[in-house]
Amino acid sequence: MLVRCSMILSALMLATYCVQLSRAKSQGWHVQRAHILKHLARQPDRSLVIVHYGKQHSPHDEWIYNEADIDRAKVVWARDMGPSRNRELLEYYHDRSVWLLEADAAEPGLVPYAADR
Asked: Which residues contact 75 (CB under 8 A, 6 or more apart)?
């Protein structure tokens, strides 16, 4: 009896995991990121994308990863760390167009970054 209950519980947990995985894939954040990256790669300027995550953000939906040679990359992705720490990024990457991405918005998209926000 205990084995049967254990197997049923395992099957339910697997089903729950599969549903969650399916939802994550259907939301397509990774596809949206790829489209944004493709768009920025076609621009004449190099870019810095500051990504802001909401409080309920899933750590499995990670927008921020960069090329190995980050300083030579066409696009650099960085986490929003607040105005003072972001200022360090803006100074370091002073020669780039700077964008803000609200990762948890219904339709994530780029807006020009306002340093005084």
From this structure: 37, 40, 41, 46, 47, 48, 49
Q: Is the pTM of this model over 0.85?
A: no
For the record, the structure tokens of 116 come out as 């005084």
Q: Do 57 and 27 form a contact (C-beta atoms < 8 A)? A: no
Place of tokens 């499995």: 60
Strand ranges of the sheet holding 110-112, from the earlier edge strand across to the other edge? 75-79, 47-52, 97-102, 110-112
Q: pLDDT digits over 55-109, tens only? A: 988 888 899 999 999 999 999 999 999 999 999 999 999 999 999 999 999 889 9
- Report residue 69 as tokens: 């040679």
Please say whether the beta carbons of 100 and 113 come within 8 A.
yes
The whole-angstrom separation of Cα 32 and Cα 53 is: 15
